[in-house]
Amino acid sequence: MNTVLTGILVYISAQLLIGVFVSKKIKTEDDYLLAGRSLGLGLATLSVFATWFGAETCIGAAGAVYEEGLSGATLDPFGYSLCLILMGLVFSIPLWRRQLTTLADLFRQRYSPRVEKLAVLMMVPGTVMWAAAQIRAFGQVLSATSGFEVELTVACAALVVIVYTMYGGLMADVITDAVQGVALIIGLSILLAIALTAGGGWQPSIASIETERLALFKTAENENWLDILERWMIPIGGSVIAQELISRVLACRSPQIARQACLAGGLLYLSVGLIPVLIGLLGYRLLPGLEHPEQILPQLAQHYLPAFLYIVFAGALISAILSTVDSALMAASALLSHNLIVPLLGTIDENRKVRIARLTVLFGGMAAYWLALQTDRVHSLVEQASAFGSAGIVTVVVFGLFTRFGGAYSAAGSLLAGTVLWNAGNYAFDMQTPYLIALCGAIAVYSAIAILEPKLHKITHL
Fold first, then answer.
1. How do residues 353-410 score in pLDDT, each as one tens digit?
2. What region, left, alpha or beta, does residue 35 occupy, with left being phi > 0 and alpha being psi -120 to 50 degrees?
3. So what's the pLDDT on residue 429?
4. How far apart are CA 64 and CA 382, in angstroms?
5. Residue 80's closest CA among 211, 224, 209, 244?
6. Inter-residue contact 243 to 127 (CB < 8 Å)
7. CA 272 to chain centre
8. How many of the other CB atoms lie within 10 Å of CB of 232?
């Protein structure tokens, strides 16, 4: 086990060195946040895939499928694959053509600077939750490998990802995404082959899975079609407008590359994402009764892989996590620095903008670490990250990007309504479908205020 842990530490160190080396070329805010808007199709596709293919897919989804069967895979990989494809088909080209730096810039261009700042306050918490989920999963992998307590390994994981992200910038993130994406595919493929071999081969392994565990749309006794729709809408509506994804779109050399990268990344995501799902189904028989279901992948690897292949697999898991957590922290940094702090400071040079962005990475990483300690489930934290505030955000983005209907009052009202309704429904009243209620409420408030907006502008101006 000491050899395995040493191999993993060497792998992490190599990723850190790549980030530090590439970071020396960062000169401007655009270099740091958008890789100089220079991404080609290959790097962009691998980055879209690797950024979205994180802890929730490898650790969370496999654990959920282990517990619930195939219905536990609604969020990942099916929901997020559709999210990436939707971005490519609908949003990528209109967003790229606006030459934004962050999604919040759209709120300033289309509505007002005050709406821009309100949108940032709605988006940053979900992004930090996403980063917290990755840090928690990183800690789970280190804990399963080293035998140390999860709390200690989560702290080590947080330190690594904060340092890694502060140095890297988006270009370093994208380059390491390419390395990490390849390592991830190789590592998961190896583990799947071993799991199938342990189960007696492909046909016996698949035949051993109970029929009831293969129902994708399985519902509990008190569930209905609205509950199913809720589960699908959270990853699709909640993530299609995520800053992590949009930064890849904006960093591409052309709108055509942006669209093709999202479509190709979505298809790759679905293909590779089915591997942890299948392993979760097989693992239920291979390692029954796990106390922590989210450790099914590292536990299977530890049981069945020789040391060298286990190092490859553990490196693959860490690749998935690093490629997502640095993107999440970068997204929070971009929103806080570019849309809040820099405008408050006025005209400053590019070097200072980069320093501010790096400091906000540190701030976001510390907040994510605290959140990672407050939960014991990666899957639930990811779901909350996708849902928090996003009902209002996606409503305002769709109206703002594709129509001229509504203005600043409509946008502000919709953002507030979506966030308040989701938090009330999810936390205060424990509703079955808080996201659908928040989404419908955000659309209704936007539409109602938009009709009255001409009169409101005569009274005051937002």
1. 999 999 999 999 898 888 888 766 655 566 566 667 789 999 999 999 999 999 999 9
2. left
3. 84
4. 12
5. 244
6. yes
7. 16
8. 15
pLDDT tens digits, 173-209: 888 788 878 888 888 888 888 888 887 777 777 777 7
Helix H or strand E encompassing 171: helix 150-198
| Per-residue pLDDT at 283 exceeds 90 | no
Helix H or strand E segment including 86: helix 80-86
C-alpha pair distances (Å), 134 with each of 43, 73, 301, 434: 22, 18, 20, 24
Gyration radius (Cα) of the chain, Å: 22
Q: In whole angstroms, what is the distance from residue 293 CA to residue 301 CA?
A: 14
* Residue 427, token pair as written in the block: 């936390």
Give, as one character, the DSSP assignment of residue 255: H
Q: Is the dihedral of CA 258, 264, 270, 272 positive or negative?
A: negative
**What token pair was written down for 400?**
């703002």
CA-to-CA distance for 318 and 137, rounded, in angstroms?
A: 9
pLDDT digits (tens, 9 = 90+) for 199-251: 777 777 777 777 777 776 665 556 677 887 887 888 788 788 889 899 999 99
3-class secondary-structure state, position 372: helix
- How far apart are the C-alpha atoms of 174 and 168, rounded to whole Å? 9
- CA pair distance 379, 372, nearest whole angstrom: 12
pTM recorded for the entire structure = 0.85
| Centroid of chain to Cα 74 | 15
Q: Name residues whose C-beta falls within 8 Å of residue 201's C-beta, 6 or more positions apart in sequence.
A: none
CA 182 from centroid of its chain's CA atoms = 19
Tokens standing for 124? 């940053």
For residues 273 and 78, give the distance between their C-alpha atoms in angstroms, rounded to a whole number.
8
DSSP 8-state secondary structure symbol assigned to residue 432: S
Name, in order, each residue with C-beta under 8 angstroms of 168's C-beta and a sequence gap of 6 or more: 19, 20, 22, 23, 176, 326, 330
β-strand partners of 39: 252
Q: To which residue do tokens 């996403």 refer?
A: 130
Question: Contact 264/50 with Cβ under 8 angstroms?
Answer: no
The answer to whether 133 and 60 are in contact (CB under 8 A) is: yes
The more confident residue out of 87 and 294 is 87
| Token pair of 26 as six digits | 């960062």
Number of alpha helices (DSSP H) and beta strands (DSSP E) in the chain: 22, 0
Cβ neighbors of 76 (< 8 A, separation 6 or more) are: 56, 57, 60, 61, 64, 235, 273, 382
List the structure tokens of 362.
């540190």
CA dist., res. 149 & res. 347, Å (int): 47
The helix-helix angle for 225-239 and 390-402 (nearest 10°) equals: 60
Place of tokens 């509950």: 227
